[in-house]
Write a structure and sequence with these properties.
The protein is mostly beta strands. The protein has helices at residues 5-8, 15-63, 177-180, 428-432, and strands spanning 71-73, 76-89, 106-120, 123-132, 135-146, 152-159, 187-197, 200-210, 227-228, 234-235, 241-242, 249-264, 271-285, 290-303, 306-318, 330-335, 338-343, 345-355, 357-358, 367-379, 387-398, 401-411, 450-460. It has two domains: 1-9 and 16-63; 72-460, Porin (Beta Barrel). It is built from four helices and 23 strands. Residues 49-58 have a biased composition (Low complexity).
């Protein structure tokens, strides 16, 4: 404005022209102010949309794609899910009946679960309990508080903040290999604080112990996620496996987690780039104490309906040589009522590419998301074979229905085929033995590719 004042005072410019020019300048300044405000509003809408998307992703992880007609009792919302599985893969036959490896595959009930959500003013909470064939456990159970600035605190059994999202990079039913090493969708008992500062999303957490053990036949593995657990199996120096006896091993204690994710929304390809850090103690039972740590960098790139998620993690479990495994390169991890040895020192690269296609023109289908995923446990022990997992599939959504159709191909994932190189089934002996055994997430001595076609039918209510 000051720059044009000399022009207004110049000879030959009439008072009327001066007034018109001043009005025009005022109009331009007003338009500029409006444009600035629109830019501020657009940025706020973008940030709000990101927060809503993050909240929706967290809700999907906790509750599944439930329809709107949930049961409510005051501040409580009650829902659940019933899921069944069809499996066909490289599994040796088991007689003339249905088999996962032949005779048309195997159809079985996978899980039933009940969810409860609490929302009373600023008081919030979640509870989820699951039943599987022969065992059951508490999946989630916490109370929390929503602060006025959008922050939240959770106390109880909640999801550990590690990786780019609730399920790591994965969109598939199988997840990626992070999950099987306790580094994705992991529930532990402690306190978590979630907040944001500008474009940063921050999580701070302390966990006193791992997830509570449920009811099952295993020593300490009736749980949803993978934790380091004690067991009763021991291995002699000559490789002889001894079952039963006094429990040995470690239990997770005093774990610290930090995650920071930075959002870049004002670029051609919106990006979230972040890092996750984890450190904790291991309390020994008939063995010396130890510790464990993991560090990860991860990124999510969105372009239209495409989503690319990548992650690289380095983890180390520090334990001494012990009398029951005769090595410091393996520790037992357990979940789903079963435990096996995993490598104590490895890298985990993982990538997932997916596309969300909303099928508005199809009355019986809301959306479909095809995906391709790859992950690998790259073990630092030169005598161990890596554990790779490739998944091709799609997730189909309609109302309360959510169906996964996956073809998984793996060299080193016990849930994807159990056939050995000679065509026989992996045995408990070579799963537990660190000397001549398979132990897919540990030695992986079979070093053999298997496949599994899996269709998971889930109805969420």
């Amino acid at each position: 404005m000051a720059a044009v004042l000399p022009l207004l005072a110049a000879p030959g410019i009439s008072a009327a022209s001066t007034a018109a020019l001043e009005r025009r300048i005022a109009e331009l300044e007003a338009e500029l102010d409006d444009a600035r405000q629109e830019l501020i509003d657009a940025k706020e809408e973008t940030e709000e949309a990101y927060q809503q998307a993050a909240a929706a992703e967290e809700q999907l992880a906790d509750e599944g794609p439930a329809p709107a007609d949930k049961i409510t009792f005051g501040p409580l919302t009650i829902g659940g899910a019933l899921r069944a599985n069809y499996v066909l893969g490289t599994y040796p036959g088991r007689g003339n009946g249905p088999s996962r490896g032949g005779n048309g595959g195997d159809f079985e009930l996978e899980t039933f679960r009940i969810n409860m959500d609490l929302k009373y003013e600023s008081l919030v909470g979640k509870l989820e309990y699951r039943w599987y064939n022969g065992y059951n456990f508490l999946h989630t159970g916490w109370l929390g508080w929503d602060f006025d600035d959008g922050s939240q605190i959770q106390v109880g059994q909640n999801r550990v903040p590690f990786g780019p999202g609730p399920y790591g990079v994965s969109q598939s039913w199988f997840f990626d290999q992070h999950y099987y090493l306790g580094l994705a969708d992991d529930m532990d008992l402690g306190i978590k604080y979630i907040t944001s500062i500008g474009d940063w999303s921050l999580d701070f957490a302390y966990y006193n112990r791992a997830q509570w053990n449920g009811r099952g036949t295993s020593l300490d593995s009736a749980r949803y996620d993978y934790d380091i657990v004690p067991w009763t199996t021991s291995v002699d120096p000559d490789g002889t496996v001894n079952y039963g006896g006094t429990p040995n091993g470690w239990e997770e204690r005093n774990q610290l987690n930090f995650r920071a994710i930075y959002s870049l929304d004002d670029i051609a390809v919106p990006t979230e780039i972040g890092t996750s850090l984890q450190w904790g103690q291991l309390e020994g039972r008939r063995v010396d104490d130890g510790e464990h740590w993991a560090a990860s960098v991860h990124m999510k790139n969105s372009w239209k309906n495409w989503l690319l998620a990548t992650q690289v993690t380095r983890y180390k479990i520090d334990v001494d040589d012990n009398d029951f495994l005769n090595t410091d390169e393996l520790v037992p991890m357990g979940a789903f009522d079963f435990a096996w040895p995993v490598a104590t020192d490895a890298w985990i690269p993982a990538v997932s590419l997916s596309y969300l296609y909303e099928t508005n023109q199809i009355p019986w289908l809301d959306s479909v998301r095809p995906y391709v995923e790859y992950s690998n446990v790259v073990k630092q022990d030169s005598d161990f074979n890596d554990s790779q997992l490739v998944t091709l599939g799609a997730a189909w959504a309609r109302g309360g229905w959510y169906i996964y159709t996956d073809l998984a191909i793996s060299d080193g994932n016990f849930f994807v085929g159990t056939e050995t190189k000679d065509g026989t089934a992996e045995t408990f002996t070579n799963i537990f033995s660190p000397i001549d055994g398979a132990g897919d997430f540990g030695v992986n001595a079979n070093d053999h590719w298997n496949y599994r076609l899996n269709i998971n039918f889930g109805y969420y209510f």
